[in-house]
Amino acid sequence: MGMNHLSRSARGTLRTGALGALLAGLLIGGPTTAAASPAFTDPSPTPTSSTAVAPLAFGDICHSDLPAQAYDTLELIERGGPFPHPQDGGTFYNREGLLPDRPTGYYHEYTVETPGLDHRGARRIVTGDSYEEDYYTSDHYASFDLIDYAC
């Protein structure tokens, strides 16, 4: 039973009601769906919720695009040291919340030397416990790039 079986006045009332609900929703900022009476409901399924995917808080960088000093750091990590700074190998707490949420102790940080500086500088590699889960930051944790070892 469709709208064609309604009188003109009933169709006009239904359109006016739907238009009013739509307009009210737009003005108030609420949902913009109009409810029809049970006799005129659409039998097709409608989604009741949507799953939002959180954007990644890090990018990626090809292994071949890392600065030369990062290769030295990765080799030291692979060998287990010795590291040039006492902080190297320490727990990275992910206070910035940019990396995936993991338990404390999952991430560790290592210095990537910056030529010409007499201090640690801003460059780091942060490792996760998973195989090849290594992140590079050149701006002291303001951003991260997952190292892609395939390129």
TrEMBL record:
GO molecular function terms attached to this record: hydrolase activity; RNA binding; RNA endonuclease activity
Signal peptide range: 1-36
Keywords carried by this UniProt record: Hydrolase, Nuclease, Signal
One Pfam family, short name: Ribonuclease
Protein name: Ribonuclease
